[in-house]
Design a protein that fits this description.
about 325 residues
Length: about 325
């Protein structure tokens, strides 16, 4: 007997899940200031047969970057730093080659630093280990010359937060964002912590679905765990301004200006697309066993969040939900 789906979004998501061989995923649709739909599809754990729900917990991967950017903007709002500060002002012992790198360069991937920390990503090491490994390496280009995606820049931003506040970046986020917003599930990724409803990560080897060992890496470049429901609360904060002032929220979505005075369509942890009156901010994330996407209208009131437990084209799923919303 064929399965009957509740609506066009359910039907589309289940078809995409089957086509892309995604074991499990969860979605949220926000419109008009309300959470219009939150649902799970498939399984959060194939071996146990546990179904994915709106409460399933996923590794957020690089969608974490927008949260770190908001934390840095909050510190600027409170007068603890400015985005144009050299990174050396807040991190002691930086090499001379970093002299012209600003916090804004780190936030917009225009620093010229190496793309990733040159360490085995499958092994456990600290932020200090990563910083020490990168310090001797030459810049790839002059700061502000161009945009080139750089995870390591956000590792440094996590360290800046610690230096300015005396708290680890995840502790600061808990204190200033997650608890006030009642984002009760969102936390730093940690394999030792027991997390109810945590999704297992998967990959395809040929036609076979296999388990993916989870990364131990939990840096500010992509180290959060969360649910679609918590991210809907985050989205509401970005629209309503309960923590960030309007000018601070707007700062997140301003395209970066390069040295040649041309703009590049990237804000602070957000890709910027569209045209005046139809502007969109979005960002994806990927790490072994997981794929994530956050899509939101800047000149409208809709947002779509997709979290999945296999590397997949979840941006396509987000777009399909938008078309059917």
């Amino acid at each position: 007997m064929p399965q009957v789906f509740k609506d066009a979004i359910d039907s589309f998501v289940e078809q995409e899940r089957a086509n892309q061989r995604i074991p499990g995923l969860s979605i949220a649709l926000v419109s008009g200031g309300k959470l219009r739909k939150a649902a799970g599809y498939g399984q959060l754990n194939v071996e146990t047969g546990t179904p994915a729900t709106a409460e399933t917990v996923y590794q957020l991967a690089s969608v974490t970057k927008q949260v770190i950017a908001a934390a840095v903007v909050l510190l600027e709002q409170e007068g603890q730093l400015t985005l144009t500060d050299p990174v050396a002002k807040h991190l002691p012992g930086t090499p001379a080659s970093w002299e012209k790198i600003t916090l804004l360069n780190l936030l917009t991937h225009t620093s010229g630093l190496v793309t990733d920390e040159p360490l085995d990503l499958a092994k456990s090491y600290t932020e200090a280990d990563a910083v020490a490994a990168v310090k001797p390496l030459p810049l790839r280009f002059a700061p502000g010359e161009r945009h080139s995606y750089c995870n390591f820049g956000f590792v440094l931003l996590g360290e800046v937060i610690r230096q300015r506040t005396g708290q680890r970046w995840d502790e600061f986020l808990q204190t200033r964002f997650f608890r006030p917003l009642n984002m009760s599930t969102t936390r730093r990724h940690n394999l030792r912590t027991v997390v109810t409803g945590r999704a297992a990560g998967y990959a395809l080897e040929g036609e076979a679905l296999v388990n993916v060992p989870s990364w131990t890496r939990d840096f500010a470049s992509g180290g959060l765990l969360t649910t679609v429901g918590d991210l809907a609360k985050w989205d509401e904060m970005l629209r309503q301004g309960t923590i960030l002032k309007p000018e601070s929220r707007a700062r997140l979505f301003e395209p970066v200006v390069l040295n040649n005075k041309k703009t590049y369509p990237y804000g602070l942890g957000w890709n910027l697309v569209g045209e005046p009156g139809k502007r969109i901010a979005e960002h994806g994330g990927s790490r072994p066993g997981f794929a994530t996407h956050f899509w939101r209208e800047l000149d409208g009131d809709r947002s779509v969040i997709v979290l999945a437990n296999r590397g997949a084209d979840v941006g396509r799923i987000a777009q399909g939900i938008v078309q059917r919303a």
